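Support case: user asked for a sample of complex input and structure output to validate their parser. Sending the pair below.
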Amino acid sequence: DAKTTQPTSMDCAEGRAANLPCNHSTISGNEYVYWYRQIHSQGPQYIIHGLKNNETNEMASLIITEDRKSSTLILPHATLRDTAVYYCIVRVAANSGNTPLVFGKGTRLSVIA
Amino acid sequence: DGGITQSPKYLFRKEGQNVTLSCEQNLNHDAMYWYRQDPGQGLRLIYYSQIVNDFQKGDIAEGYSVSREKKESFPLTVTSAQKNPTAFYLCASSPELPRGDNTGELFFGEGSRLTVL
């Protein structure tokens, strides 16, 4: 079973920041938080990952709480093309082999013009 | 360009027929994975392989079979034993065993949509 809890759906106005929450209260010390998104009928696309520090790349920012029990993915200026299902995943990495990702149902983000 | 190629993109088959979905990658990745997705659902793991000539069952392996004879290829056969084979099938690969900060990001193909009539 997925170890994360996400809202089923969210709306965001175009041009505004989209903040997608994820709860992972049972996360272990060696587990990373990954975010992927899936645009309709395509394969999922990697967005960002982090362990305990906040991370930022050209696509998004990832804010992880100090206790690591939850995180938020931030799309700073959402566009219509960001409409997708966003998956939050926790996974052991580094020196542990390629353990498969376990996907939950994710959050369906709708960006509205 | 490097990437993962799945074929065919769309496939129709009659009930009771075996079907093989192709997945090829030229990324030199060690690990490969097969997921299944049903409408409105997340991805569920069917099989995965961490190295050539070795593979492990995922959560829903019944009715499916795989082989990993070459690093580049991980075909999935949907057998007649699979009760509800109509679904969207996704193949993925990831780099060699994670070391240090390399966390083994998954790279996905575009998927194969199988419809059993």
